[in-house]
Structure formats: structure tokens, C-alpha cells
Predict the 3D structure of the following.
Amino acid sequence: MFLIVGLGNPGNIYKNTRHNAGFMAVDFISDRHNFIWSNKSKFNADITSGSIGDYKLVLCKPTSFMNLSGRAILSIMSYYKIESKKLIVIHDDIDIDFANIKCKIGGSSGGHKGLKSIDEVIDPNYYRIRLGVGRPDYNRENVSDYVLSNFSDSELNILDNNYKIIAENINFLFSSGLEEFKKQIAKNG
């Protein structure tokens, strides 16, 4: 069983912000593959489970806010007995140009507080799907204000295409591993 986590902050105020790119990606995956979210929040997270192809998985959006995501994820992993090598975290990354997708296993948090929270309670060697949101203009706004700002409508349209590519190719990550998933993302991106 795999666990796919989208990082973000709960509440309508954050719905279309750069920091919620992970939530948006997981929502797109759930819609594309007909997962149904329950109205109950369990483990300090919204979760749903189902299958993509032959692979069972749990989708998760922590409701404990970005900086405390690790605790919710650890609870889910413990309950479902999911190993860190089957954890996939989708998150925003300001060090990647807008609309680019990068994937890796492990690494540092790079200052991302959601990743830092996960790394503190779980082995940091998990899959990371990094969604480029670009960097703020340092003369105008700080990083915190930037990641909590809303995407424009045209940016959301571009991101929808990225989410579609991830949703349609996520099965390669389960069946063939990271390198094949990266090839499929590059080929279809």
C-alpha cells in the first residue's frame, strides 16, 4: 500500500495559494481515479483510500496546517503499516521555476516547513514530487507572503495540466519506480 500526501493548509482562505499546490494535486488525483473523500477528518487529516490499477493506496491532506504535517502522516503510516519507501509527498517548491515538476527520493527540507515536520518524525528517504511555484521578487515580498498568495487564473490553468500529467502517470511510480515516472512526466510535460 502506498500513501500519497499533498501538503497544504486547510480552509478556504488558503485554497488556491502556492503553498497548497500539494493539496490541489491530490484532489486532482482523487477526482481522476474516482476516490471519494469522507466528511470525517481522521488522524488530523482528510483521507480516502482506493486503488489505481493493481496498487492500493491512501490519499491524504493533513488538516493540522503545514508546519505540523509530520504527526498526521506518521499516524496514518502507523495505522496502515506503510513503510517510508512507499510514502509519496507532493509539495510546492520555490526553488523550481513555475510549472516545472521535479521528483526525487530524500534530500533536505530546503526550508520547507512541511517537509521539515515530516523529516523530524519519519525517515527522510521518501518520494518527493516537487511542484515549481517560482521565487518571489525579493524587492517586493517575502517568501512567507509569496507562498500564501493566490495563483492567478492563468497559473491555475497551467497547473491543472501538470496535475493531469501526474495523475495519469502516478502508476509508473508504483510499478516501475522513480526513473520511469520521471521519464513519463518529461515525455508528457
In short: The two ends are 27 Å apart (CA to CA). The longest helix spans residues 153-175.
